[in-house]
Design brief:
This protein has helices at residues 9-12, 16-33, 38-62, 67-85, 92-107, 111-126, 131-150, 154-168, 177-194. By secondary structure, it is an all-alpha fold. It is globular, with a radius of gyration of 17 Å.
Length: 196
Amino acid sequence: NYLANSESLSDYYGNPVKAEIDCDAFISFYTETAESSLAMVQNGSQLLIACLLKLTAIYRSISQRSYRKSQIFCKKAFDMIDKFYGPNAVELEAASAHHEQGIIFQGLDNHGNAEKCFDQAFSILENLSGASEATKIGVILRSLGDNHYAMKNHIKAAECYEKTLSIYKTTPPDAGLIEVANTLNNQGANFCEMGE
């Protein structure tokens, strides 16, 4: 439960061993108790997916050397999503998994596959509604903009950053302040590259 809480993610940066131990403890707990209640299975599966996605983010954030481990946890998250929601899932967790996979590809300079992952995440979220989905769409569009920036496609990057900022104008004020700052920073770097 601690690991599934997004606010506690920063506590794990630099300490992937503790994160993995906590996730392993959760997986053991989930496995032992899942048969006792259908509600527990459903709730536990969502928490397990959240844990796997957090571990994916943790390992990809540490260094490029950790990307292999990040890919393993991302694959496990996709496996759980397929098991829990079925193939071609259109849930927030599936969009998050595609986004994480895209960031991994982007970090490995595989920008074509990164773009496919970001597009898949975006298409899932387009069909969902709510402030958290809008915020996540903004995050994905910024990632897509970063991917275009890395490929020196500055016009498409600028378009993505503009769309991201317009989305954040419609979300609650505190929902995306860090994302707005990151987007403005990246947009500024992109404009410098364009000579503006």
